[in-house]
Write a structure and sequence with these properties.
The protein is 27% helix and 23% strand. The protein has helices at residues 75-84, 103-114, 132-135, 162-175, 186-200, 209-212, 215-232, 268-272, 278-281, 294-306, 341-350, 356-370; strands at residues 2-12, 15-24, 27-33, 44-47, 51-55, 57-62, 87-92, 120-123, 125-126, 146-150, 179-183, 236-238, 262-267, 311-313, 387-397, 416-426, 429-433, 436-437. The longest helix is centred in the middle third of the chain and has 18 residues, at 215-232. The chain binds zinc ion.
Length: 453
């Protein structure tokens, strides 16, 4: 089947131009610059005049909660939200039940996604203090890389013993596979929490969250990760960087050049909210690492533009509303965000924070490059046709009835936007079109490093 997307502004690989994308079945068969009017020869014609035509978003950091935690979310519900948000691929994190820390658990998850996920899927393998021996048994074409919780509060996946850490960094380097880390120093957090409880009681007010999960705890843990990555030559990607100070670890990435060995991700949440929002949003914006000062947010935004932050993910991590009640000790950490991530970033484009060309690098090109995703992340002839068509609109507000995530709430409730995702193509299939998700469509397993020698 031939689809033609005509007349939109294509944003891809550092350029922005009016043109036509031609899709044959699941692949892009041509991209024609200028006005072509090729209408005659296709089964489906999409008039994208006045729209931006972007590579579909690759969200490199989500928690879809399946298997095991499906009361919060599942692959079916969250990929509906993703498709509605212009996201065509995701990498899910290993802290599900069971954890994705064995070869079997990984295979099970991939199998599960095949008739659950409406978009393309990939799964990180979780590093623990005793499974490095299994790293080499993993098919490297099936995983983006390894995820390590370095001093995060995630059960037995917390690895903070020095010898275990060294072994993980070395093994990833030997295999030349990327290591994505959650960096927060647990000892510091525990000490801060004990002090806060002593002063304010069992469940300290949410405003104290960034004091307990402090900037210092982030920096201490990140600097250890960077030190180990330098020592062993590991390709390190630090997840959800939240502080101005940690940005000193990163070299600016330059268009057309390979990405640096040590890189950082920012999340839409940390780019959007600051600690002032605890007043109105309370524990809804509680996440780990914490949302920090306005100055930190400003520094993160600057780093998007100058290339010290190379990728933007969501850390989409839904909880039931009942779990989001309480303060620093009781409320669960994490929030849904994938459905509105692209339009939130487009809003930052309107505010002059970054260009739309840069947005596409951060949300599609770079996640594909960092993790060696095959045939996706760019609008290129021969590549899979993963495409988001977005459009400026009259102002509208996020309301409960629009939310696709299973948890049914969003920290962005009531937020006004002037952008909408009009249509999302996944493997050439129109998986989302003007408010409607095609629930009968399922995405493909992502492949990695297929073109390596
Ligand atoms: Zn996460």
């Amino acid at each position: 089947m031939r689809t033609i997307i005509d007349g939109g502004t294509i944003v891809n690989e550092g350029r922005k131009f009016t043109g036509t994308v031609i899709i044959d079945d699941d692949r892009i068969s041509d991209i024609i610059e200028g006005n072509s009017n090729p209408r005659a020869h296709c089964e489906r014609f999409v008039d994208a005049t006045g729209c931006f035509v972007l590579p579909g978003v690759i969200d490199e950091h989500v928690h879809f909660r399946e298997p095991g935690l499906t009361r919060k979310a599942d692959m079916e519900s969250e990929t509906r939200a993703a498709a509605a948000g212009g996201v065509t691929s995701f990498f899910d994190m290993p802290n599900t039940v069971p954890q994705t820390t064995t070869v079997e658990a990984l295979s099970d998850k991939i199998r599960l996604a095949a008739d659950r996920s409406h978009i393309n899927y990939g799964f990180f393998f979780g590093a623990t203090k005793d499974n490095t021996g299994d790293f080499s048994k993993i098919d490297r074409t099936r995983v983006p890389g390894f995820k390590l919780f370095m001093g995060a509060s995630t059960g037995n996946m917390l690895v903070d013993r020095r010898d275990a850490l060294e072994c993980i960094f070395k093994t990833c380097a030997d295999l030349d596979l990327p290591l994505m880390t959650h960096c927060e120093d647990t000892a510091m957090i525990n000490k801060n929490m004990a002090e806060a409880k002593r002063q304010y009681g069992d469940d300290p007010d949410i405003a104290l969250h960034p004091i307990i999960r402090s900037a210092e705890a982030c920096y201490t843990s990140s600097s250890l990760a960077v030190k180990l990555a330098r020592r062993f030559g590991t390709r390190l990607h630090i997840a959800h960087v939240t502080t101005a100070r940690e940005l000193s670890f990163f070299e600016p990435s330059r268009p057309g050049k390979p990405l640096p060995q040590i890189t950082g991700e920012a999340t839409v949440t940390h780019l959007w909210f600051s600690e002032e929002d605890y007043k109105t949003k309370g524990a809804l914006i509680k996440c780990n690492p914490s949302v920090k000062r306005k100055e930190d947010r400003a520094a993160l935004r600057e780093a998007l533009d100058d290339g010290r932050i190379v990728a933007v993910g969501t850390d989409h991590a839904p909880h039931e509303m009942k779990d989001k009640i309480g303060g620093c000790a009781k409320a669960a950490s994490g929030m849904p965000s994938i459905q509105f991530s692209l339009i939130s970033m487009l809003t930052l484009v309107d505010e002059g924070v970054l260009s739309i060309v840069r947005l596409v690098e951060l949300m599609a090109h770079h996640p594909a490059q960092l993790f060696s995703v095959s045939e996706r992340g760019f609008l290129r002839k021969g590549y899979k046709a993963d495409i988001a068509i977005v459009q400026r609109t009259d102002p509208w507000k996020v309301s409960e009835n629009l939310i696709e995530s299973k948890c049914g709430w969003s920290p962005l409730m009531g937020q006004q936007y002037r952008w909408k995702v009009r249509q999302t193509f996944c493997n050439g299939h129109s998986v989302y079109d003007n408010g409607h998700v095609d629930e009968d469509y399922f995405g493909e397993a992502l492949r990695f490093r297929l073109n390596e020698e």
